[in-house]
Structures are given as structure tokens and as C-alpha cells.
Amino acid sequence: MKSQGFTLIELVVVITLLGILSATAAPKFLDVQSDARVAVLDGLKGAIQGADGIVQGKAIINGLDHEDHEMLGPEHGINPTLSIVYGHIHMVKSNVDVAKPFNTDLRSVDLTHLIPDFDTISGVAFYHGDEKTDIEVANSKCFLFTANGPESGELLFDVETSGC
């Protein structure tokens, strides 16, 4: 007599093996959202650096790269008018909100933050999610902080991703 199909033991073994494989693979797939948040913050850092390079070029052409807190506007080839520090984008929330240079769902908030090799410094933090206070953003441990360096205005970055 020929038997067709699976025996109960074969079925249990296959289901058990599939369960073990899925339990092993699930954490890899479930961690994708965290990786995506980190990638968005890293991508935004690159976008800010690119935008700053364009603004710095316009400031140099117009001789505004040696001035602290200048305005760069349509008469200089930049629209809308931006506040700059030694030719770099002035990193304050009001300046970022006016420029809207980033097509992203990230929000921004003015934040005072400690950057390695510098004292506590004021700048802008970009983060995911609903509207938050500066303290909530700092406690979330998932943000991109950017500020102007105290001497030359160059952009300083700190990407905090331990809470993403």
C-alpha cells in the first residue's frame, strides 16, 4: 500500500524548521525602520552640506564670506533671503523655515547641544515625528544637529541615532 502526502511527524518538523527560520530572520527585517530613519538623517546631512556649498559660493562671489551675520538675497542670486555667517547658512530654525530647502517629513527645532571638541553650542536639530520641544528632541536620541562653528561659521554636525 502506497502512502501519499506527508506524515504528521514530517509536517511538524517542517513547521518547526520554518518557525525557527522566521524567528531568526524577523529581527533583521523588523530593524529596517530604524535603519531608514538613520539613512534619512544622513541624507539630510548631505543635502545641507550641498546647499551650504551653493550659498557659500554665492557669498564668495558677492564678497560676503568675511562678514558675521550678513543677508544673502535675490540681488545675490539666492531666493528667498537667507541669513549667513561668514558665507555659510546661519543655522537657526527661522532661517531653515524660510528656505524650506529640504523636501522631507522631518521637523526642526532650535536646540542647544554639546558637540564633541566644542562647548555647548546653539543650532538646529532635525527629527522625525510629531511636533516636539527642544528637550523632547534631545531626549529622543534620534536627530541631526547642525550649527555654525564659532570662529569661521563652518557647519558642524552631530548625528545622534542611538534612539532611532
TrEMBL record:
- The domain of life for this entry's organism is Bacteria
Residue stretches in coiled coil: none
Q: What PROSITE patterns does this protein map onto?
A: PROKAR_NTER_METHYL
- InterPro entries on file: N_methyl_site, Pilin-like
Note the Gene3D superfamilies from the entry: Glycoprotein, Type 4 Pilin
Q: Which Pfam families does the record match to this protein?
A: N_methyl (PF07963)
Q: Which organism is it from?
A: Photobacterium sanctipauli
Provide the protein name. Answer: Prepilin-type cleavage/methylation domain-containing protein
